[in-house]
## 1
Amino acid sequence: MTRTSSPSTRLAGRLKAAFSNPPVKAGMRLNPERELARLLNVSPKCINRTLGILTDEGILSKRHGSGNYIRRIPGDPVAADLSVEQLFPASELEEDAAPHLASLPEQQRLTIQLWSGFHRNPGRNENYSLYCKIRSQLELAGHALETCDIIDSHWRPVPLEEVAETLKTHPADGYLVTSPLGEHFIKAYTMAFGTHPSAVVFLSSWGDDEFNEPEIRLDGQEAVIRAVREFARNGLEKIAFLGIDTTYHSSCADRRIYEFAMSRAGLDYRLSRHVEVKREAAYRAVSEMLDAPEPPEALFIGEDLLIEGVKDVLAERNLLPGRDLAVITISHSEGSSEIHPDWTSLDFNRDLTGVVAVNELLAHLLTAGHEMRSIAMLAKWCFRGTHFMKKGK
């Protein structure tokens, strides 16, 4: 028997006809699945498959632990052979029942899981402000955020089996996942449920060697291109790059971005270092670059956590940014950066990144037909002239 003539497909058609007629409204909750099976005289398996078909079509929305809800009315009214009393509890049919999803905060309260390490080390982890914005944005919208570790205390990926078990025992309506471990999450989700996740947005820092869709990016590639272009526009040709090499940043990917930016600017000079996020590591790397046969005229710092080490080198050698070396860096926490105000910088707005990620996911969950997009959040310039120089100054 083909799918088009299966009992579940035929029942889905009958349900759509019933949903198309008043008093059915978006946001109404159906009877529990076992009750539907009894009232419609079909098997629980048939009901489950039928509701799955309607969920895939965007007509229903399933809320774990709460039930199945009308997400949208399927079309103009048509003749139906099922009564609303068979499909909905009496409380949903009362005249003062809420008419749409937005006015059903309890029934439409979503649970979103954030799989990352963002929630750790408040005040020290640069991503903590992103976590705070995500939480506040969801709570203001009436939804709940659960934080889940996808890395352990040593910043290593949590074993797939553990992630899969958490997903299986504590499912959520949607997921926000740090992109550098996106494939790890997808494998664990597939292990838990046998399918790829459909309600997930990946959050990327710049320089990631792994790309997932849909992804909200702090577009570091564009930031590097803009910085190199600005250096070149001021006549500087020997531009060095200092980046980090960690679980979340691939030195190979960062180097490719830097080399692409230099090539695009028509510059042959290449000098880059990628180090651990430690003051002494940044100190050694910049010292090596300044002692190179062709030392740089300009330095792009791809991580503000390296600044202290850079400052130590420049102070020790009596080098002043703006007089002896042009310097641009990146601030990841707009409005709360520890970068000295004299340092020329590019600001990434992590708050806006969190808002965009949350809104994309909620729109997908609450609006039929909304397809999530990958969005790049570009850096904005915050020039401090004291640390920028033209060639020959």
## 2
Amino acid sequence: MAKKEKETELNETPVEETVEEVVEETPEVPEVNPWEEKYNAEHDSHLRLAAEFDNFRKRTVKEKEQSYGNGKADAVAKMLPVYDNLERALNQPTEDAAYKKGVELTMNELVKILNGLGVEIFGEKGDTFDPNLHNAVMHIDDESLEENTISQVFQKGFKIGEKIVRFAMVQVAN
């Protein structure tokens, strides 16, 4: 009996009401012009292509700038042994004033060229130790110096902008 009651309930619902409800709930779809749709697709494709080209242009400019900076850093790195040898020659005692003057002039000219290339020389005695710039190869305890102070410089450091060409090799106190 329960099956018959359910069947009668289902049969009592008029079919017309359910169709009208479905029709009322369906939103109206506007007519789409095929030419307008094709135009929008082509326009979108054109905008994407223009954006891709712009990104490619920006990327190649950035790569070009980086390659120039890397080349300059490599060239400076190859000249650093000359700087080191001139610095050692200046630190050696000599009685020949003309020789010492010639080495000083050569060193000054090299420093001038390096500065013209945008190279910054760092790592002086008395500076504060920075592990991002300095390579500590020795450590001493010296009460006359503050903590993390450079007490001796073995090799100067060089950087171009934010790029480190060579870390300064130093001795750190305390």
## 3
Amino acid sequence: MKKRLLSVLLTGALAVSSLTACGTAAVSASGASGTSNAEGTEEKPVIELTNVSYDPTRELYAAYNEVFEAYYEENFGQRVEVTQSHGGSGKQALEVANGLEADVVTLALEGDVQVVSDAGLIDAGFTSEFDLDSSPYTSTIVFLVRSGNPKGIYDWSDLIREDVGVITPNPKTSGGAMWNYLAAWYFFEQQGQSEEEILDSIRKLYGNVVVLDSGARGATTSFVENKQGDVLLAWENEAFLSLKEYPGEYEIVVPSVSILCQPTVAVVDEVAEKHGTTDVATEYLRYLYSNEAQDIEAQNFYRPSNTEIYNNYVFTADSNTITEIPEDGRWINDNITLTDINHFGGWQEARAKHFADGAYFDQIYEQ
């Protein structure tokens, strides 16, 4: 595996990525620091683990890290402190590839993890390392509109009307934005449009974009706090968090079709080996599939991969408009047709056709 000059770039990369730590300790060459107790005997060192993730997972991992740290100390007899970094998924992938020392990545899509793998930092076959293509939870793309849905936005076709202002992040820096784009593409394809007609529809949609933020959380801020646009194309969990934080101000509209978003997790092998954290990093991602973690994921409005737990959160929808968080905690609306990345030939083909320099997105957005 190629060796990288990771430590040279670490300090600047951490400042850019706005890390928030769950504690501090002096880091040794093995990624841990030892302390002495009151009797003067050496205690086991604290293991420090860095998870580089994407914008909308802040609340999820704040909750999960607490649970994992307690679980690991109880079962393995060592303390773990997890440091978290968030940003647009594509940008985060580039940060890690260029030197940000992550022990694990939990990014918005397989393609972003592949960027890190292509840099020589993650071994090939990372999608087979954990269950379900190394995707412990899923999401989808929905619309967030203002209370009462004043513009009457119910499906993707409404987003190309001249009177609608759209908020969505930039697919060049945000994994969630790629999912948004592909979900829209699938809708227009399902309407029987030719590829040329689909491109025209997508061009109109992005012609209505008011702000093209670098990441999903920035887009949410533009819509919710800065009051820009008429509709936010959002991760399902981001939309529900807005309902929770601003009751009565927003509504979720579940479109007729969308896409199954599969965030991908991976151990950054090169860095974990350097830090001596491979075992704890592997356990950190494996435990995301535990019943305890799956409930945390669902409580943070991600769709758990465990079918039994998933079913505990499904409700029978009378309408595709959601105005409040259900009191019984059942928030998953299954009344939606979902495609997936395989429909687009996988991430390598989708990136080359739609998101690479000079590909379809560049062509439609630059016009």
## 4
Amino acid sequence: MSTATTALRGKAARPAGPIRLWYTALVLVMAWGLAAWIYELRVGLAATGMRDVVSWGLYIFTFAFFIGLSAGGLIMASSAEVFGIKALKPLSRLGVLSAAACVCVAALMIIPDLGKPFRVINIFIHPNWSSPLVWDILIISIYFVFSVVDLYVLQRHVKEPSRWHTTVRVLAYIGLPTAILLHSVTAWIFGLQISRPWWNTSLMAPLFVVSAILSGTALVTLLALAAERWGGFSLPTETRRWLRGFILVSLLLDLFMVGADYVTMLWGNVPAAKSAIDLVLPNGPWSWLFWSEWVVGGVVPLAFLLVPALRRTPGSLGIASVFAILGVYAFRAELVVVGFVNPLVQYPPGNAVGTYNPATSSFQMIGRYHPTWVEYGIVLGLTALFLTIVTLGYEALRLRGSPPSGPGPAAHGDEPGGKAMALGGEVV
């Protein structure tokens, strides 16, 4: 009987009012996102802030961000089984659920970036197998199917532990390298672009994997804390300790790798690389991303994880998780946009923007990018879809995941006589 396993309390249903309000808010945000996408389909990509110079924007760095969240969730869930970390097993199903929801939303994020959604069919009809983009689509599809199957098996394992134990373990050994491969392939879309020094580094894949573990663990932590606050979930102290350790170690590794890349560019002083990094250093026009990554996403969470007085603050783990996620998102924005701001060819009159406006020039020497309401609407709508999937999935786990009742002491946090369901598939 595992003392590290958390359980859901079998108590009376929660008030319907807050739940109804939550779903109403999500539906309204998704409706706004759908309306923004319909508008974009009518107007074209000119409705966005992207142009020929900066052709990847909010959609793509949010796509890379959600891919990281999904990979991190499955890595943490698989590690619990592969490395025998019993304290993380209570979060296995929650991690796999978040992974499936994230990769689903990440795949959908590509559609509005194409402008014409039917163009995605060309990837399957005329695949270019030498392109990392094709391999990324393939691994995303495999990953989504695997996550759904894994979640189903974990759910069955709750009621029939002896029958499904071997299958759970086999899937964990498959899931761990699959999650690492998913984010590595996404990283190679950037890292293999030899004409863009800002991206062309062998550190890109390991950096993406580490940041995925960081953001994915932070996301699962927030979901677990939210479930504990509003969903009858109990998070053991030992699990909190492991989550804190995962976030701390991955955050330090993430900052070290980004810093090592900065030092290499500055020391080498290659003009193309130097012109890119100058954009994000403290005096550059995109320095707010630098401060967001290193201070908001680095110093602040480290303080809440390491400083004793702050560690004792109520909600310190959740605060550190939020700021860590913001830091990773800032890194994704910095990576994508700054890689485009300096065009590959910089000669007068500049690069064609791709649209005509009598008030401004149709050429740019330096790229400019500001997301429009359309981009914000679509991204927020898809984020609301993610929250909807997770909420509905969690409710399904609560209602259908209770193991058969039997003799023995009540689970930790359970009320006497109540049923318990462990999110990791292990009954207390």
